[in-house]
Design a protein that fits this description.
This protein is mainly beta. Helix content is 4%, strand content 45%. The chain is globular, with a radius of gyration of 13 Å. The N and C termini lie far apart (39 Å).
Length: 129
């Protein structure tokens, strides 16, 4: 069974940090670009970060640029999202997703690109004092 599973979410105070992990089962994450999306309460789902298949390109949405870092651990079939200086506005459900090799799906926040076949179930991140 092919699946992606997120972990590492939870409740954190403003200014704090969390590291999300996306583990692949039944597929090799190295075969894909991997994106992170989020959905805040009452809002649509938006792409916020992506690492290309060849690890030669990273995308960050402006609101997270300089605070979030995406990385790949091929030995563990895992992609991480390190989130620092968290703000209440980062509160959302976070999802990892396979993307086309150059991260176009995540960059344009559209799900119509080839390769966007697998989504995790999502994990809650709450930033609150």
């Amino acid at each position: 069974q092919v699946q992606l599973m997120e972990s590492g979410g939870g409740l954190v105070q403003p200014g704090g940090s969390l590291r999300l992990s996306c583990v692949g089962s039944g597929l090799a994450l190295d075969d894909y670009a991997i994106g992170w999306w989020r959905q805040a309460p009452g809002m649509g789902r938006d792409g916020i970060a992506c690492l290309s298949k060849r690890n030669d390109y990273t995308y960050y949405e402006d609101s997270v640029k300089g605070r979030f870092t995406i990385s790949r651990d091929s030995a563990k079939n895992t992609v991480h999202l390190q989130m620092n200086s968290l703000k209440p506005g980062d509160t959302a459900v976070y999802y990892c997703v396979t993307d086309e090799p150059g991260c176009s799906g995540t960059f344009y926040s559209t799900t119509t690109y080839d390769g966007m076949d697998y989504w995790g179930k999502g994990i809650q991140v709450t930033v609150s004092s």
